[in-house]
Design brief:
This protein is mostly helical. It has six helices and two strands. α5 packs across α6.
């Protein structure tokens, strides 16, 4: 496992992503860590749009095309956001508004 994970006792890592490929890559890294994500049935959220899943058809485009159930996608994003805000540690992409919001909610909740 990564030295920081050993130092802070991190064994489980929650990955919030709209790319199933990212989660597969993280799990392939292993490192003694348990990589998890919000378990959702992507086909339920994406419905007919599931066949367009992949890098050629980003989620935002599939949503605009009406191929994704917007309510379920919004609920899934909200669950991810709240789980991230409660995490003991965050590794984020600073260019992502979603990540920055999770960080701000975490700081507001914990006071640090």
């Amino acid at each position: 496992a990564h030295p920081l994970c050993q130092q802070y006792g991190i064994r489980r890592v929650f990955v919030a992503t709209d790319s199933p490929q990212i989660l597969r890559e993280m799990k392939a890294l292993g490192g003694g860590l348990d990589w998890v994500s919000a378990e959702e049935d992507e086909d339920k959220v994406e419905g007919a749009g599931a066949r367009f899943r992949g890098e050629m058809w980003p989620q935002i485009l599939r949503t605009r095309m009406g191929l994704i159930d917007r309510r379920k996608a919004a609920e899934s994003a909200l669950v991810d956001l709240l789980l991230l805000a409660e995490a003991d540690a965050l590794v984020i992409t600073s260019s992502s508004s979603f990540s920055l919001l999770a960080l701000e909610l975490s700081v507001a909740s914990k006071g640090y």
